[in-house]
Amino acid sequence: MPLPLGLGGIVIPTAQVAPANAAGTVQFKDGSANLGAPVPVVIGIALGPASTLSTGTHLLSAVFTPSNTTRFLASTSNIVTVKF
After folding, report:
1. Cβ(30)–Cβ(9) under 8 Å?
2. What is the pTM (predicted TM-score) of this model?
3. Residue 75 belongs to a domain
4. Which residues does 35 contact at the CB level (< 8 Å), separation at least 6?
5. What are the Cα distances from residue 35, in Å, to 27, 59, 71?
6. Interval 35-76: pLDDT, tens
7. 45: Cβ contacts below 8 Å, ≥ 6 apart
8. I want to staple 72 with a disulfide (CB 3.0 to 4.6 A). Which of 39, 40, 47, 66 is the partner?
9. Does any domain span residue 4?
């Protein structure tokens, strides 16, 4: 959601983890910077913190870290480009 007067925008990142029973956390990132702390995966969905991003281009991604590394693999999403 763009903010008025070119001040940037607000994002609420989400990630879907498969299979839905994969327990762990997701760290949302803007480039190499973390967007808040890691959030738990609940029924295959991770809902990140609402973040205010500055004007410009942002490269957003999500990094899944499983609770049980013998059952599930860590993974990183594709990068999503957002521009305000």
Report:
1. no
2. 0.91
3. yes
4. 11, 13, 28, 29, 48, 49, 51, 60
5. 7, 12, 27
6. 999 999 999 999 999 999 999 999 999 999 999 999 999 999
7. 14, 15, 16, 17
8. 66
9. no
The residues near 7 (Cβ < 8 Å, ≥ 6 apart) are: 54, 55
Give the number of domains in the chain.
Answer: 1
Residues in the chain: 84
Write out the two tokens for 62: 């999500």
Summarised one tens digit per residue, pLDDT across range 1-45 is 666 666 788 999 999 999 999 999 999 999 999 999 999 999 999
Q: Give the rounded distance of the alpha carbon of 48 from its chain centre.
A: 6
| CATH number of the domain bearing residue 77 | 2.60.40
Q: Which domain holds residue 58?
A: 10-83
Strand partners, 52: 10
The confidence score (pLDDT) of residue 6 equals: 67
